[in-house]
Write a structure and sequence with these properties.
104 residues; mainly alpha; transport; transmembrane helix; Small_drug/metabolite_transptr
């Protein structure tokens, strides 16, 4: 269950990171409220997950999910560059996440 909560926390981290773009500097009330709610929910779920998971592993996986998801959505939604180097770096982050999960 802790791994599922950690994954969900990571997905919510993606949500709030992407949501920041839509808040327009926190001037749009609905996107701002949704982004803030995602932030709180993400951290709460991370806090619950670290009750049973190693802190360093959980935090690294949480930020890794957020980083990879945000970069991918940045490419898809905002036409950010999808260079070979960026994609290779994403692959390295995924490899690190998998390694940490395998050793936890």
């Amino acid at each position: 269950m802790a791994w599922f909560l950690l994954f969900l926390a990571g997905v919510l981290e993606i949500g709030w990171a992407i949501g920041l773009k839509y808040t327009d500097g926190f001037t749009r009330p609905i996107p701002t409220a949704l982004t803030a709610a995602s932030m709180v929910a993400s951290v709460v779920l991370l806090g619950i997950a670290v009750r049973t998971l190693p802190l360093g592993t959980a935090y690294a996986i949480w930020t890794g999910i957020g980083t990879v998801g945000t970069v991918i959505l940045g490419i898809v939604l905002f036409s950010e560059p999808a260079t070979a180097v960026r994609l290779a770096c994403i692959a390295l982050i995924i490899a690190g996440i998998a390694g940490l999960k395998a050793t936890a």
